[in-house]
Specification:
This protein is mainly β. The protein is built from one helix and 23 strands. The strands form six sheets. A seven-stranded mixed β-sheet has the order 12-11-14-15-16-10-13, with no helix packed on it. Strands 2-8-4-5-6 form a five-stranded antiparallel β-sheet, with no helix packed on it. It has a four-stranded antiparallel β-sheet with strand order 20-19-22-23, with no helix packed on it.
């Protein structure tokens, strides 16, 4: 009665079991420092804050169940997708010290299970018996309703709808089954992406801890990753024809000295728009030709061995 269990099946089933109803005095748990897979052998459900007696809360580092987790926050209380214990489910109770004679307090628990608290596993990744959770305080440009997903080996290993600070993103690990063979392994760092309802997707960057089974990680802020270009390029100026300004965009895949100049039809340089070292990425310069006559000009970009030229038309 004190233990929790993973029940792995090869198809959907309705699983039932019989037994004797217990009371808290029947189940004094002895928890060791670290992760303990335990039961909640009572009818109904109970909010985490109610079920854990106050004297034990300082020693609980976090709680994990199937695809969901909770962690204590000194300001917000319990955060994460796991809000209540449910009868018939198992839990990893992570403690920072040995606890003798731990008992649940079910005096404020409901006698019936709430459908709203049933755990739903996303269809685009598989539940694993090896799992970790990343509680993220904030993400650049994130909005409630966006989907945040974790990846290992370019395979989606978990996702969660963003619902505010400290949303917990699951990251499933390889549990030696065919369904999880490309999932996270120890000492591997997962990557994260945001998918907005519009379909826009962008990668995230930040200080991300390595994956570990039953890991509960707190992250402060993840930023939108800057995607570097794969090659040098000089984009078409816009507008073109123009009067009197036009923007010239260019891309460099590595830190490079860049020269961009404008020449007239006689091949004489009329203005230098860029001359110096630029960081890898996407850049732009603006030519204000207010003091130049209408006509055809050429803009030339030189970056290392890369050279490109395009025609400009100034019309006044």
């Amino acid at each position: 009665p004190l233990d929790g269990y993973w029940l792995k099946v090869n198809e959907d089933i309705f699983f039932t079991f019989t037994g004797t109803q217990l009371t808290p005095s029947d189940t004094p748990y002895e928890l060791h420092s670290g992760a303990n897979l335990i039961s909640f052998p009572y009818m109904g459900e109970c909010a985490i804050a109610d079920a854990i007696p106050d004297e034990f809360e300082p020693y609980i580092a976090g709680i994990i169940s199937e695809g969901v987790a909770a962690s204590p926050n000194p300001v917000l209380g319990w955060v994460g997708s796991l809000t209540a214990f449910q009868g018939g489910k198992g839990y990893w109770m992570k403690t920072n010290a040995d606890i003798v004679d731990f008992n649940f307090d079910i005096s404020n628990c409901s006698n019936s299970l709430s459908r709203s608290n049933d755990i739903t596993i996303a269809e685009d990744f598989n539940q694993s018996t090896e799992q970790a959770f990343y509680f993220i305080e904030d993400i650049e440009n994130i909005e409630v309703g966006d989907i945040v997903s974790a990846y290992c080996n370019d395979t989606k290993v978990g996702s969660r709808e963003w619902n505010g600070s400290y949303t917990d993103i699951p990251a499933m690990g390889n549990d030696n089954s065919d369904l999880t063979k490309d999932y996270c392994t120890s000492n591997q760092v997962p990557t994260f992406r945001v998918e907005k309802p519009s379909g826009e997707t962008y990668a995230l960057t930040g200080d991300i801890p390595v994956w570990e089974s039953n890991g509960l990680h707190m992250l402060s802020t993840l930023q939108e990753a800057i995607i570097l270009p794969e090659s040098y390029s000089l984009a078409a100026a816009y507008p073109n024809p123009f009067n009197p300004t036009t923007t010239i965009n260019f891309a460099i895949p590595a830190d490079t000295d860049v020269s961009i100049s404008v020449y007239n039809l006689q091949g004489r340089e009329v203005v230098s728009l860029a001359s110096g070292s630029y960081d890898a990425g996407y850049h732009s310069v603006i030519w204000n030709a207010d003091t130049h006559s209408s006509g055809v000009y050429f803009v030339k970009m030189v970056a290392g061995s890369y050279v490109d030229t395009q025609k400009l038309m100034l019309v006044k």
